[in-house]
Amino acid sequence: MSDITTSKIQRTTKPKIEEVLPYYLDGEMLNSALEFVAYLRTEKMNPGWSVHNAWRANSKGKPLCYVRLGKDWVRDTENVKWVIFLYLDHMDEYADKILDENWQYTIWDDLHYCRKPNCPYGCNPGMTATILGKEFSGLCPTIYKRVSFMNPDVATIEVIKKLLQFERQARATK
């Protein structure tokens, strides 16, 4: 039997995420991940295999989120099993909704900073930007409005679903 978790096998088989999730998650975390993937499919944001252990869901042909497995996708964290990585490029258009729900702290905690001395994007020491009314320095200019939720629990997944809805609505008006 082939190891579906390897990059080589995934490149040739392009597995569904449901086939690979049980190799990385179990128990409640697995159930939450499977439920989230089912939600994406129900909302016609079908996650398709992108690269090793990463599945991309698009909206209007552009990435809306990635679901990534394993710790290789995140910054300096050992205990990460999975990540939902959102592209909130139109966040300013629904910032009031985020603030009304008091979700800004969740987003602020998961912004992307320039962390590499020799950043391949040339952004070190990063940029300064105001996100949901708060100024941040050292943000990676290529992905600063993209937020990663590591090992999200059920409550965080509900917030993620709402953020996805807001982002899709904002994109639909473009």
**Element order, helices and strands?**
HHHEEEEHHEEEH
Gross morphology is globular
Average pLDDT taken over every residue: 87
| Rg over C-alpha atoms, rounded to the nearest angstrom | 16 Å
- Strand order across the largest sheet: 1-2-3-4-7
Assign the structural class, choosing from mainly alpha, mainly beta, alpha/beta, alpha+beta, or little secondary structure. Answer: alpha+beta
- Beta content comes to 15-25%
**Count of helical stretches:** 6
Roughly how much helix do the residues carry, as a percent range? Answer: 25-40%
* Major sheet details: 5 strands, antiparallel
- Taken together, the total number of domains comes to 1
| Number of beta-strand segments | 7
Contiguous uncertain segments of 5+ residues: none
- Give the N-terminus to C-terminus distance in angstroms: 47 Å
Structural commentary:
The chain is of the alpha+beta class. 36% of the residues lie in helices and 23% in strands. The chain has one domain (7-113, 149-172). It contains six helices and seven strands. It has a five-stranded antiparallel β-sheet. The protein has a two-stranded antiparallel ribbon with strand order 5-6. A hairpin with a 2-residue loop joins strand 1 (48-51) and strand 2. Helix 2 (17-24) packs antiparallel against helix 3. The longest helix has 19 residues, at 154-172. It is globular, with a radius of gyration of 16 Å. 25% of the residues are buried.
